[in-house]
Design brief:
By secondary structure, the chain is of the alpha/beta class. 39% of the residues lie in helices and 20% in strands. Helix 7 packs across helix 8 and helix 10 runs antiparallel to helix 11. The chain binds pantoate. The site of pantoate (PAF) has 10 residues, from strand 2 and helix 7.
Length: 275
């Protein structure tokens, strides 16, 4: 497995190959593993980028506390038989004076964008840079970050970057909790309570399948499931068109049902797609 740190080197290595890129911020977990397996099915040269992107965090504390264990990540990626990893330093990606931002507009201003205003500009900027540097044929992302997937697809289309984007289903633990690097920060009580997120999403699907399409009613029922398991702060429960993210009064397919909920200091997001 090649470990590459410089833009010039990664450009050289990737220039004559069919490339599958799996962008990450490290803290490699089962969700990333499923993306890597999917990429490897295509038999292209697979490269995992590890870059904790400072400009996509809500604040400096969140950035500094982001889990960081590069040696264990490298070991895991070696075992997964990844072809190469790209681990640039901050100044390699954002040299002093860097000032360009990629803003994909309205779709990035709702839901997560409302609570974390600079987040998607940060994501869109780093993904545009990675796609420009590596020029992958394919790139892999997880459905858990549904809005991120939409933002990335939109910038890829609108800037004609030509990358084929693959979205993998959310990987869950045995209790239905979506795998995320943030789960490490949950204590036992929060971990148990967090099971209510997927339960509430499954309930929304069941209600819809029973013929209920009133989104206010469905959201109220979902809220009850979460609050009965653990009284907490819910940033949002959204039932929206899965392409435009416009909120719906009545479910009309395709619909994205998504939520963001706090457990102690940890904010979790999750979603399901009704097609
Ligand atoms: O999902 C993530 O880990 C990050 O947002 C991404 C896509 C690697 C961009 O920094």
């Amino acid at each position: 497995m090649k470990i590459i740190k410089n833009i010039s080197e990664v450009k050289k290595i990737c220039s004559d190959k069919k490339i599958a890129l799996i962008p990450t911020m490290g803290a490699i977990h089962k969700g990333h593993e499923s993306l890597i397996h999917k990429a490897q099915e295509k038999a292209s040269f697979n490269i995992v980028s590890i870059f904790v992107n400072p400009i996509q965090f809500a604040n400096n504390d969140e950035y500094i506390n982001y889990p960081n264990n590069i040696n264990s990540d490298i070991e895991k990626l070696k075992n997964l038989k990844v072809d190469a990893i790209f681990i640039p330093e901050i100044r390699e990606i954002y040299p002093l004076g860097f000032s360009t931002n990629v803003d994909v507009g309205q779709i990035s201003k709702v839901l997560e964008g409302k609570f974390r205003p600079a987040h998607f500009t940060g994501v869109a900027t780093i993904i545009t840079k990675l796609f420009s540097i590596i020029k992958p044929d394919h790139a892999y992302f997880g459905q858990k970050d549904a809005q991120q997937c939409l933002v990335i697809k939109k910038l890829n289309d609108e800037l004609n970057l030509g990358v084929k984007i693959f979205i993998n289903p959310t990987v869950r633990d045995q209790n239905g909790i979506a795998i995320s690097s943030r789960n490490k920060n949950l204590n036992k009580i929060h971990l148990k309570a967090a099971e209510s997120l997927f339960k509430s999403l499954c309930l929304s699907k069941q209600l819809f399948e029973k013929g209920i399409d009133n989104t206010k009613y469905i959201k109220d029922e979902m809220k009850k499931v979460i609050m009965q398991s653990y009284p907490t702060k819910i940033d949002y429960i959204s039932i929206a068109n899965s392409n435009t993210l416009e909120e719906l009064d009545k479910i009309a397919l395709p619909t994205l049902i998504s939520l963001a909920v706090w457990f102690g200091e940890t904010r979790l997001i999750d979603n399901i797609l009704l097609k």
